[in-house]
Amino acid sequence: MNIYMLCKVQFHGLNIPSRWHQIIQIFEGYKSTIICRVIKWMRPASGIYKCNTDGAAKGNPGPSSAAFCIRNKDGDLVYAAAKTLIDGSNIVLGRGYRMETDSMTMKMIINAEWRIPWSISMLVGDIKRLMADQRVTVEHIHREGNGLTDFLTNFVFDFAGAVQFHNFQEFPSDAKKILNLEKLGIPNLRVRALQDKAPD
User: Fold this and answer.
1) Per the confidence metrics, is the pTM higher than 0.90?
2) CB-based contacts of 108: which residues, under 8 Å, 6+ apart?
3) Beta bridge partners of 137
4) What is the reported pLDDT for 59?
5) Cα separation, 114 vs 123, whole angstroms
6) What gap in Å lies between CA 167 and CA 66, rounded to an integer?
7) Fold for the domain defined by 49-189
8) CB 73 within 8 A of CB 26
9) What average pLDDT does range 76-84 have in this prediction?
10) SS3 content of the chain, % helix, strand, coil (to 5)
């Protein structure tokens, strides 16, 4: 019965029979369909600053963090920190910028494409007030194209409090590598399995 439940959870697209010999028959002919997409960080247009954001949590409930990284048209670091998005927005007031997040939910809420949950309505209101007089676009990027801020959200867990970086030389060596790879446009692969189907 435990194997049956495991199969139901792991392969929810398959019609898993309850008898052992039938489960074996299903998986003897099973093939998973994999799709790959090339994802890479793209430089902003001239005169625009790009602000990538990310968040992380160690458990639910548990400690959480947020990070942002601002880069110019050449992909060079302007400023990065592991702290709230609002603080990041304050840094770039008066400049046009493009904000990228790997949270589709955040993008849809800030762009008013989804209703704001009451539990975060005050925070979203603060973000929108900071964006009110700015040239700001908020777009979604897959996690594979948001490597630098993903690294920073996890890096900050090793420190008590926030970390800030004002230039490339202040970055830890792993962050320097990620920034250089993204700046050069080196792609990452996004690999996902499609909905599982039983064999013909």
Assistant:
1) no
2) 114
3) 98
4) 66
5) 15
6) 19
7) Nucleotidyltransferase; domain 5 (3.30.420)
8) no
9) 81
10) 40, 25, 40
